[in-house]
Amino acid sequence: QLQLVESGGELVQPGGSLRLSCAASGFTLDDYAIGWHRQVPGKEREFVAAISRNGVTNYADSAKGRFTISRDNVKNILYLQMNSLKPDDTAIYYCRAIRGPEDYRGQGTQVTVSS
User: Is the pLDDT of residue 30 over 90?
Assistant: First the structure.
């Protein structure tokens, strides 16, 4: 069964850091374009970061300079290192894997940035 499971979200103070993980099972992440999105209840889901099959990364303007997306092909895990977190980063973070018509998403992990 193909599955993506996110983890690592928690309550953190402004200026803090978190590393989110997205573990894939049933398929190989490096065969897909993969990335992170986030969503605040009542708002549309927004793109955060992505990494292509050949390792090219892309970031939303809000994430540039603060977030880093990476992939461990041995462990089959996608990461999002988030530094200098702001209250506006509070959201549910989802990972997503796409290859042609195939589109897989996890259930999300909650990140809350608050003092």
Answer: no
